[in-house]
């Protein structure tokens, strides 16, 4: 799955498109495999209750790679001038992952009754208006 995330990010030319592609792919992957979404969410939210350390370790590594990719995108945006330079990248990347995670949880709790991928643009709008440079 991570390779698919990287592939989508690399298709884009600027940080906003990269972030959009990453979030869209993330939501697409979980929407297409609801069981994977359930396992991922269960392990990340109740990790101490999961006895299979291998799964926990794999998800922890995947989350780290995801956060590193988000950091890379944010830093590129700062270089481009499209993302404010006064932000704490470590805080913003967790904000982004948390918002995507929350969208997935809400979708799971609804029984998958709506198109999860349709949350991409509202999430990106929230991120960009929250972290974007108003001077651009």
The gist of it:
This protein has 136 residues and is mainly alpha-helical. Helix content is 74%, strand content 0%.
Report the radius of gyration as a whole number of Å. 15 Å
The CATH superfamily label reads Tetracycline Repressor, domain 2
Query: What average pLDDT do the residues reach?
Result: 87
CATH class: Mainly Alpha
What is the end-to-end distance? Answer: 34 Å
Order of helices and strands: HHHHHH
Instruction: Label the CATH architecture.
Output: Orthogonal Bundle
Count of helical stretches: 6
- Unreliable segments of 5+ consecutive residues: none
Summarize the biggest pleated sheet: none
Number of domains: 1
| Named CATH topology | Tetracycline Repressor, domain 2
DSSP strand content: under 5%
* Tally of DSSP β-strands: 0
Shape: globular
Helix content: over 70%
Protein model, in words:
The protein has 136 residues and is mostly helical. The protein has a single domain (2-131), classed as Tetracycline Repressor, domain 2 (Orthogonal Bundle). It is built from six helices and no strands. Helix 2 runs antiparallel to helix 4 (53-80), helix 3 crosses helix 5 and helix 4 packs across helix 5. It is globular, with a radius of gyration of 15 Å.
């Amino acid at each position: 799955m991570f390779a698919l995330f990287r592939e989508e990010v690399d298709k884009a030319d600027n940080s906003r498109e990269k972030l959009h592609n990453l979030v869209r792919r993330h939501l697409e992957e979980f929407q297409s495999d609801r069981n994977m979404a359930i396992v991922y969410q269960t392990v990340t939210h109740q990790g101490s209750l999961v006895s299979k350390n291998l799964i926990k370790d794999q998800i922890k590594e995947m989350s780290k790679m995801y956060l590193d990719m988000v950091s890379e995108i944010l830093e590129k945006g700062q270089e481009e001038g499209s993302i404010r330079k006064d932000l704490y990248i470590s805080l913003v990347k967790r904000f982004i992952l948390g918002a995507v995670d929350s969208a997935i949880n809400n979708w799971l709790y609804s029984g998958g009754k709506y198109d999860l991928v349709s949350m991409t643009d509202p999430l990106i709008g929230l991120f960009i208006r929250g972290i974007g440079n108003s001077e651009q």
